[in-house]
Fold:
Amino acid sequence: MDRRSFFAAAPAVVAAGALPASSLAATAALNGKLINIVDDAGADPTGATDSTAKIQAAIDSVGGAGVVIAPPGTYTCSSTLTISNSNVAIVGHSRGSVFFKFPEGVSGFMVAPGTNNVEIRHLQIVSVGAKKTANTAGVYAVAPALNGGIGYLNLTDLDINGFDKGVDIRYAQLSSVDGCHLWANNIGYYSKRCVNMRLSSTISERNNLWAAFVDGDANYVNFSAGTLIKDCTLVSCGGSLTVETGTLQVAHNEYTSVIGCMIDVPRPNTQWHVLFTDCSRGCITGNWVGAAKSPRGGISLVNSHEFSISGNNVLTSENSGYGIGIENGRYNSIVSNIMKQNDGIDIIVFGTSSRGNTIGNNVCLSTVNANSIGETAAFKTIATGNSVVKGVLLNTTGGSIAANNLVVT
Structure:
């Protein structure tokens, strides 16, 4: 074929910098499953035109294994981008230079049920217009059940704001959210019925309801298990008296650990700060828990059992708030915490069915309440080896034990 015949037979150009779907797939294969959404797919990095179809074509082109690259720029999307295949990574140049913008009522990225090893990294995902529309999320990874759910999802270095939930993950396992910034949503991080999850090194702030909410199912607590929340900053969230709000809530879960987090300064009128309800066998260790705004105080365990609460600084709970409260909890260990400047009692056991909780080696320095440690009935609580500036009031005639506690002034 001569040169003139070759060009006559060439396919028409689809758009500047864009390839048809079949050619995108071929390019992906040729490049080792690596696709650039601008150079290969023709997405508009100025944000002036809708790039949804081109970005979706790029995601689909890598098939069951590949990397989709997003160069610096702003990408306007009119509908949700769906990741339907396993072993796919969407990677931006850097979180501060790559913006995906979605309209009101539209989620950002959806990870389909049954997928494994999906990664989304180094992007900013924003809802524009009227924000926080119900049932939207920056990343929506929801399956109908654990069998056929989502596995090994990794979300890293994402900035997500303006949605109902920044991250919404349900029926997933062995997945992680690391180094993200979740702000100005209703809930920063939400998970439900997940197993062996990690939320780490993430800042969740200025969210209207909760910074993080790890949810489960009352009928399947043993299948909502094993979440690690570590090295996170959870601040300035909540702020409503008409709906339940707070900083961190864990419900109907077991084996949840909260370690080394800054949990501070909820908004005024926030009902809870750290709340575990209907949970078992977890630990709350080495956290800063400050400036609770309600009588519920700093750390609250409700109908929760066999927890280790240790090494925390819990202080400046306002509005008669306690430092640590155990309501209808059994066999919890509250050890080596420092409590200071709380408006209410530092440590309190109450409810109707609390039993066998141990309170030891804590330093309780708050001075407003008449007692530093107490219980509201004979719950067979053990309090020993604590340093307190007020008294320790337990019902020793009902089986509780208070021994070797030092009252210091």
Remarks:
- Residues 1-16 have pLDDT under 50 and may be disordered.
- The two ends are 99 Å apart (CA to CA).
- The CA atoms of residues 233 and 262 lie 5 Å apart.
- The chain is about 5% helix and 40% strand.
